[in-house]
Write a structure and sequence with these properties.
The chain is mainly β. The chain has eight helices and 36 strands. The strands form eight sheets. Strands 18, 19, 21, 22, 23, 25, 26, 27, 28 and 29 form a ten-stranded antiparallel β-sheet that branches. A six-stranded mixed β-sheet has the order 13-12-17-16-15-14, with no helix packed on it. Strands 3-33-32-31-30 form a five-stranded antiparallel β-sheet, with no helix packed on it. The two termini are about 35 Å apart. The chain binds MU-OXO-diiron and calcium ion (CA) (2 copies).
Length: about 700
């Protein structure tokens, strides 16, 4: 997600305090001073020291601390001799690119980028061609949706390791109607810039013109796409348009609610008095694949679709539940509530309880009904990558992407059976959700969120497990979990079993609020934490952790690249989504890099083990206004698919910042691109060009 304002604050994360109190302003000033001083200390540690948790350099008072925490398994002196980044070529074999602000994507030499799936691309045999001036919901339901985010590659035939043929399953996070529809947005003649930098404007800068048709197109442009793709004899990837698997899941597709919260009173609405059937999924951001080959897609910023929190009395218990997510007091930005009652809290106050879940479905069965798995808890879901524990239980890791929210792990009660796919299909309906506590000594605990245990009692508002799961954030508060800097993607390295948690940024953390797992005040650049489960048991409840990456410009900031020489690495900011290649190198896409660095969002890679651990190199740069998301490889790593999401965001249909990828008179089209080496059978990232 992006939608940043001119101060680099992401607009939809507006819950934690609109407007600053004097105390906050003071804290910010103090933290800025602390940040500058600690920056020098951190870079001194990074270039000279053994691998340490550098948070010691960022002590609460902003002064360097005397005794940094040694990291379990640290290898002192692993920093290789310095080589200028521009000429460095390591085991990954490509020449890093530099930050780029151009209007065309850039990729490392020896590789090429090809748009594969564009917004509006027909993906059904009888789908109409994309016609931006004459869009209909019926057409959009047969075309690729808007703003691709997470991508899963599901080999075909099912059960194979094919890298020539498969299903791409793609989340469509949200819509930018101002870039989708001619005449949707116009300048407001009454607008005047606010007097103070951080004051909200008195009147909106733009007026919008939603209609029944544009809203219906938007609903159809949300959700997911399932599209069969294959590599032809010339090595080019193409869409199999008449594939029986191709499918759209949208914001109106019926879904089943499963697990302890199914049928709960809070999930009941006029349309669904049983609280068990929801129309659609929205704001699908990161996602994951289960060992049995299903998708688990995360519903993230669902609050932005609902209007009129102000119509609910503040002493009504559901007011606080909704307010934790930051609903608008009055109209929503998209104004869907004018066309559908379910988006109006004044009319359907329970509808939002039906969103904010992990949604599982089987892409190999085009008739399968998506299931909202309430065992995974309700929050702004990200991640959902899985790992099978030694005893067969399956761990699903997920982040809750908001400032000061939490990192979670669900562990199934039952065991995965690799020989009986059908027996695994509802494994996610029973198990235990945990939330992470990162201790300052480099250990951590997975705290169970189970009704009746610890503070999760009826007296504290948790009468049932449904109460715990619907109000996961309150439950996590109660057990004392660690408040993180926007936990986003959360993935296990298949090569090592170590788990990586990406915290995108947090501009609002004060110096007093820092801890060793979130060590920087006003963390504009984000960081990545490496977790090693005790005994490599992903079903366990204790772990060790260390800081892997404190992103930023190593020339100017308090950064940390797992101890690697900061003079060699590429500047990086706002890490968001991650994936791994077959060697266990970590590939990182960014969302919000241009807020702190002079470049478009991009794709970076960093080894996690060996002498080049921490050696971040930039591989790909996208286009203005876009974030990069959802990177995923084919099994043989000969192709890398990634999303170029919301290009030109911040401009309008009439005057887009870019018309990539089509150019001419076409609107910009958010797209999945495929990156290949010039030799289409070579592994991406290993060739020099
Ligand atoms: Fe949709 Fe957390 O990014
Ligand atoms: Ca994201
Ligand atoms: Ca990922």
């Amino acid at each position: 997600m992006a939608r940043f304002d001119e101060h680099g604050n992401d607009k939809v994360f507006s819950t934690a305090g609109r407007g600053a109190t004097f105390a906050e302003v003071l804290a910010r000033r103090l933290s800025r001073r602390g940040f500058v001083r600690s920056a020098a200390a951190a870079s001194a540690l990074a270039v000279t020291g053994p691998r340490l948790v550098p948070t010691a350099a960022l002590a609460q008072d902003g002064t360097p601390a005397a005794s940094p925490v040694a990291t379990p398994g640290a290898t002192p002196g692993a920093t290789p001799a310095a080589t200028p980044a521009s000429t460095a070529v390591g085991v990954l074999g490509f020449e890093p690119i530099t930050l780029d602000t151009g209007s065309e994507p850039v990729v490392a030499a020896g590789h090429r980028v090809t748009p594969l799936l564009r917004w509006g691309e027909p993906i059904m045999a009888d789908a109409p061609e994309f016609d931006p001036e004459n869009q209909t919901a019926v057409a959009q339901e047969m075309q690729f949706g808007y703003n691709p985010d997470w991508i899963g590659f599901f080999p075909l035939p099912q059960g194979s390791e094919s890298s020539d043929n498969g299903l791409l399953v793609v989340n469509h996070e949200y819509t930018n109607p101002e870039l989708m529809f001619p005449g949707y947005q116009e300048a407001n003649p009454d607008y005047a810039p606010p007097a103070a930098d951080d004051a909200p404007p008195d009147v909106p800068e733009f007026l919008t013109n939603p209609t029944q048709e544009t809203v219906d197109v938007e609903l159809a442009a949300h959700g997911l796409s399932v599209v069969e793709v294959r590599r032809n004899d010339a090595g080019e990837w193409e869409i199999v348009r008449d594939s029986r698997y191709n499918r759209r899941v949208t914001a109106t597709t019926p879904m089943e609610v499963r697990g302890p919260a199914a049928g709960a009173d809070l999930l009941k609405t006029s349309d669904d008095p049983d609280g068990r059937t929801v129309m659609g999924t929205i704001n699908n951001c990161a996602g994951g694949v289960t060992p049995w080959g299903t998708v688990v897609s995360g519903e993230e910023n669902f609050q932005q679709y609902f209007a009129n929190l102000g119509a609910i009395a503040e002493d009504d218990p559901i007011y606080a539940m909704h307010d934790r997510f930051g609903f608008e007091a009055e109209a929503s930005e998209r104004r869907w509530e004018e066309f559908y009652d379910r988006f109006d809290l004044a009319k359907e106050p329970n509808e939002p309880f039906r969103f904010g879940w992990g949604v599982e479905f089987d892409p190999y069965d085009p008739e399968s009904t998506p299931k909202k798995r309430t065992t995974l808890g309700r929050n702004k879901h990200e991640g959902h990558t899985s790992f099978v524990a030694p005893e067969g239980q399956v761990a699903i890791y997920s982040g809750d992407d908001e400032r000061f929210e939490y990192a979670y792990k669900f562990v199934t009660a039952g065991s995965y059976d690799p020989n009986d796919r059908a027996a695994n299909m509802d494994l996610l309906d029973e198990g235990t959700l945990h939330v992470a506590r990162f201790n300052d000594d480099g250990t951590g605990d997975w705290l169970p969120l189970v009704q009746g245990e610890g503070p999760l009692t009826e007296a504290n508002g948790f009468a049932t497990q449904a109460d715990v799961l619907i109000n996961t954030r309150f439950a996590a508060d109660a057990v004392g979990a660690t408040k993180m800097d926007r936990p986003e993607d959360f993935e296990t390295n298949p090569a090592t079993g170590k788990v990586y948690l990406v915290c995108t940024n947090n501009s609002r953390r004060s110096l007093e609020e820092t801890d060793r797992a979130n060590p920087r005040p006003e963390n504009l650049s984000g960081h990545i934490i490496e977790i090693t489960e005790d005994g490599n048991d992903h079903a366990g409840t204790s772990f060790a952790w260390e800081m892997f990456l404190l992103a930023g410009d190593p020339a100017n900031g308090a950064t940390w690249f797992a101890g690697f020489d900061t003079e060699m690495v590429s500047p990086i900011a706002s890490p968001d989504n991650i994936t791994f290649d077959v060697d266990g190198n970590l590939w990182i896409s960014t969302d919000g890099l241009p807020n702190t660095l002079e470049g478009n969002d991009g794709l970076f890679v960093v080894p996690t083990e060996g002498e080049e651990r921490g050696y971040v190199r930039q591989f790909f740069s996208s286009v203005p206004g876009a974030e990069v998301s959802g990177p995923v490889f084919t099994p043989d790593n000969s192709a890398l698919f990634t999303s170029v999401q919301h290009p030109a965001e911040g401009s309008s249909y009439e005057e887009p910042e870019t018309r990539w990828p089509d150019g001419g008179d076409m609107p910009t089209r958010p797209s999945v691109v495929v990156i290949q080496a010039t030799d289409p059978t070579a592994r991406v990232g290993t060739v020099r060009g």
